[in-house]
User: What shape does this take?
Amino acid sequence: MSLAAGARLGPYEIVSALGAGGMGEVYRARDLRLGRDIAIKVLPSAFSADPERLARFEQEARAAAALNHPNILAVHDVGQHDGSPYIVSELLEGETLRDRLNEGVPPVRKTVEQAVQIAHGLAAAHEKAITHRDLKPENVFITSDGRVKILDFGLAKLTEREPAALAGASAVPTLPPHTVPGLVLGTVGYMAPEQVRGLAADHRADIFAFGVVLYEMLSGGRAFRGDTEADTMTAILKEDPPDLSTSENRIPPALARIVDRCLEKAPSARFQSTRDLAFALEGLSSQSGSATPIVSQPPRAAWLRIAWSAVAVSAVALLAALPVVIAHLRETPVQPASVRFPVFPPADAVFAGGGGYAPAPTVSPDGRLLVFMARRGGGSILLWVRSLDSLDARPMPGTEGAIFPFWSPDSKFIGFFADGKLKKIEISGGPAQVICDAPAGEGGTWNRDGVIVFAPTLASALVRVSALGGEPEPLTTLDASQKERSHGWPQFLPDGRRFTFFVVPDNAIHIGSLDSSVTTKVLSADSKALYVPPGYLLFMRQGSLMAQPFDATRGELRREAFPVAEDVRNNSVNGRSAFSVSSESGVIAYRSGTVVESQLIWFDRAGRQIQALGEPDRYTDLELSPDQKQAVVAAPSPGSSDLWLFDVARGLRTRFTLDAAPELAAIWSPDGGRLVFGSQKKGGPLDIYQKAIGTGTEEELYSDSLDKYPFSWSADGRFILYGSAPGQNLWTLPLFGERKPIPFMQTPSSEFAGRFSPDGRWVAYRSDESGRFEIYVAPFPGPGAKARISAAGATGGYPRWRRDGKELFYLASDNTLMAAAVNGQGTTFEVGEVQPLFQTSAAGGRYPYDVSADGQRFLVLTTSEQSAEAPVTVVVNWTAQAVKEQPR
Assistant: This one.
């Protein structure tokens, strides 16, 4: 439908045609009521033929009209004319980004300036739960005075072909979508992988499209392009665009990294917030001379040094501005601005995590340093330290396999858990020092008197120990009447005597004291609670990082909690979360995204993927049945964990345990008819139970005051081999007579993860008697000489036998699956060649893999691609913005 000059559409009079395309015709018009020039887009009449589609269009268009942001085209009205819907918007003078790119690649400085504006426009819409879904240069307009406007916000979402799962993505209720063939032709090169696959897409699809647009602005070429639409879709799903660093346009490496992060295939690996993306670009814009600096107000000297360096502002600019800043500060005290910026992993490295927890970036008390876990290439997990006034991080040798680091109060030492021990290492360098045993630490805290409070296992109360070393002493007691199962994630309050900690299964924060056994519940939360100056508790609740005013002297909450950041990693089952704070300066660091998940995947000996089973989840403790037709895994449920059975052939799972108590570490009977597992059914430590397949009856086999983890069932069905904690020793439980446990391996070292050989004559296990975890084989029931299987150096453990007993497998410290040729037929155990098979990304608690009877295939709990790591976000002076919005 074409409209002539002078035609009327309600109160609007057509002045002239501006253009036409597949989405309709655009006209310059006059609003006769308000006396202003406006633009009218008349959409195809096909819209009016479908009442549901028309109603949906009107609802979503009105939602888009509610967006009031300088970087989004303002929508004034919607209506119909002769059966054709139209949209009334502000009239812009200028050209589209596509027109601008056709003239050549703009300067990097100008590109960053424009990208910041696009990001701010997207962020404003995303905060109202409205996504664009068709961001491309044609939908970005640059006005004559240099302002950037995003066009058709909300319209693309309405008109593209999309699965029904996406209908509810808007904040405004919508009717079910109705597909119209051909409406997305020409935009496929800007789609996110999840859109190409037809999966549900959220705001992170816009972030991907933003990355594609920014790539084109910087390089002048498309990021993904093929001869056909199918070729382009394949490129989006499987290929990476040419490296921007090889471009002749002198693109800063930091800017190239931002683009790469936007273009990650997995949504969880991209920026999780468009607001964080905008902050990252603003840091570059101040570096490149943009008029949009990251810090708009001069802060105090300490904040200035940290924030300015973190975003890499030039030293020359700082020196030039310093006299003015000092003079201004002398005249008028100014509240420092809030600054946030991303921290990416070191080159060729990834942030490390697994086993269903979200490892936190940990800020030093003085707010100057950040420590995090990362792995480079096929190497071991190490702790890395980065100064916030530097762009580089350095690894710390001696921290292999470290988890859950925490700082000394003077910011000179880092405490961490590794090899079943609590250790410390000086930040300036030197060897790691063992403090005490800690079989599976769940967080620690360190006060100025040299006292460390920590949780030695996932199912324990808190203990205390001197930072100089010694035997841990009990500090808190699990309340059996409240069915408490664990105390974890302690943090000292400013007085250095009282501390907060997380209680499972109540999901509550309590305050304890070094001077009393009495504890007090403070609040309900989904994670640990950390004190941050000038007087707040930070904690997780329903996916949001919350802050609540807190009187640390009285131990009392003030007013209501308010959000600080959204979509922060957290595991509400055990309180493990990915945020930290500096106890002195108030710097916050967090990582966004979901908790790491894993999927059951079959591999051959060369590491080639054969088949995936089921959907990803936070699985742990994998065991194949003797006939290899079923597999049992543990998976989390609200406040607990349960055992699930997988049908290996079909990849379907069914729930095996149903009560609210955590159950894990299951092993199969030799005939495959029963499972033995650990359970906290009594509310205390893990005890040993058994249950027949297909029945609801659970029988207690053994209980005592220690946690017990079943590892293996002898082929003759007479013995269960299990490990106890704390202390990590191996025991056998006879299933005849009085069923009294018999010590198998009890030494000053830690022995764990034992497996009976197929003929029952040997036990393979891991031990740290050499100072590093290695694999050994000892005769059963003993005594006799043991043989070391692993090569020199630490291993990850997890030994497994081939069904004929002629090969033994284990995971090395870098997650490489190793195979050792062995012979146990004689009186001594012989070890042949030990060779690597393939590197895994195994993650999953007690046992993250199992092996087929012939040793040719391996079922591995493999970290899901959807669990790829997001960058760390650092926030300096977080209260400048957040506290303004708190409830009064």
Remarks:
- Residues 156-186, 286-334 have pLDDT under 50 and may be disordered.
- The chain has four domains: 8-287, 301-331, 359-596+876-885, 602-863.
